[in-house]
Amino acid sequence: MKRTKNTKRNMTFVGIVFLMVLLAAQPVNAMHIMEGFLPIGWAVFWWVLSLPFIAFGLYQVGKIFKDKPEQKVLLAIATAFTFALSAFKLPSVTGSSSHMTGIGLGAIVLGPFATVVVGTIALLFQALLLAHGGLTTLGANVFSMAIVGSFVAYGIYKGLSKLNVPKALTVFLAACIADLVTYITTSIQLGLAFPDPVGGMTASVAKFLSIFAITQIPLAIIEGILTVLVVNAIYQYKEKGIISNETLADN
Amino acid sequence: MKLSLTTKIILVMLIGALIIIPQIALPEAEFAGADDAAGTAITTIDQNYVPWFESLFDPGEMEENLFLFQQILGVGGLGICFFYLYKKSGKNEKAEKSA
Fold this sequence. Notes:
heterodimer, A: mainly alpha, globular
């Protein structure tokens, strides 16, 4: 009886938080590197770099469907989380607004490669339907969000788990830093493609960092907290044996 | 990992504060997208740059509705998944009791 009550509470909490985010969300426009805004050479470069990750990710997702069907629900949760978080545009301290990525959760519960696919699906959806991001810039956006984001989250999660850091803090840092690093990567990608005629690449990167990264700091913190709440809920089901998952180790 | 009720309440309030503070601190701000700012920055750095590819499909006026659609897919999907887990754990508990 008590366990059921806890589960209910968990669900209510996640619900309340999403309602809050929903109410605060601003009218939306885009956020990733926009369609056509990378010179063709760079667009191809990032596509080529991202494709092997997407391919191996698809193989991993196929393996989940075939060998670990009980993990399909985690795949669904990770995808829904990324869809939800990347659709809410939130105001930030810089007076601009931006959105979260939701990638950290997937990396924590599924590992980095399957999460590359999760992120790519969300980015493709936005590029095709919302004119948000783009097909030519998809390679670069997949690289910054789905690849760098999920590997950073996974690395931090695994690293801190070995160090006996409290689980909640580990999850928070993994998701929060992965979100930030995504936008740092975007700034570097834009700086590489558009070096400043006076200050060169460094000046350009600094300029884009001031646009993307600083806006992102409070949102990264929100993403970290949301991820902690969802992982906590998932973890209760793991404890009960409803979900089996080796990535979510005890601690 | 098990968060206490108090911790959860504090975390939820923190999220609320992080969302509300920028809007109170900057009442004049329009909160336009950071990517639009980046687009402007690109054209200041390289004035001759012309985007060489346009979105295949321009949602135009529908954009807000489509974003809402994505939000519904995401939040709804999460709801369905957790409801599924909740039901499944209920069934398991019943099975344990009767066994």
